[in-house]
Amino acid sequence: MDNAARPIPIRPRDYKSEIKPVWCPGCGDFAVLNAITKALAFLELPREDVSFITGIGCSSRIAAYTSVYGFHGVHGRALALASGLKAARPDLTVLVAGGDGDGLSIGGNHFIHACRRNMDMTYIIMDNEVYGMTKGQASPTTAPDWADSKLTPQGTGIRPFQPAGLALTAGASFIARGFTGDPNGLARMLVEAIEHKGFSFVQALSPCPTFRPEQMEWKHQVRGFEQETTSDPIEAVQRIQADDGMSTGVIFRRQYPVFQPGGKSGDCMLESIESEFLI
After folding, report:
1. pTM above 0.70, yes or no
2. Based on the structure, what is the number of domains in the chain?
3. Taking every pair of C-alpha atoms in the chain, what is the biggest distance, in angstroms?
């Protein structure tokens, strides 16, 4: 085969758009973008077969920075939009992304039901334990004694959510935690998540250098889980509860029935939907 006839390899940069990210210098979300594009290139997924749905917030800008089909939704509703898309087009690879506020506060109800419904999609929460785009308020994963916000100068006094534990309790079939300081490891994790059949949840620890500069020390605190991935939810919950939230790896993976209304690819045409509303 001559060089002209050889297929051109897909590169990570092929999945990036011409729009340049406007995140703050040092934001962990840059690494998430790189990890996602590396994962898509490794899987050699055609761009037209991938859809990226996001909510609102710093992290949710990420869909615009990719060259796949994307939809920037409203606050907390990314999973609802993605579920509708997956129901209508089960042939698509559906990625969903948001922040800890978008996904676990206003979007918390959609999150737990997406976990239990177990549709075949991958959800990435970029967790920096703060509302960054609205200038530094406490989020559902913020420690109760964090007092660097004008809204909660004494701290929230409220115990934070444990995202991995919440996902496990709600029924997610793939649960992992990665760190943006290890983008290659995060990329490998995303490959596993995308290949998994069912609802995959990846919590990406993504430091915010602007409103949580102390998080830059995470690079000295993060380490891998000592245990192998488990399919036993009891073992998984014990592992999650015994951890300080700084261990990374695939925590839980198990095959549950995948929910897919209808089940036929591409059979939901706009004309057929419109016809149902004709008098």
Report:
1. yes
2. 1
3. 69
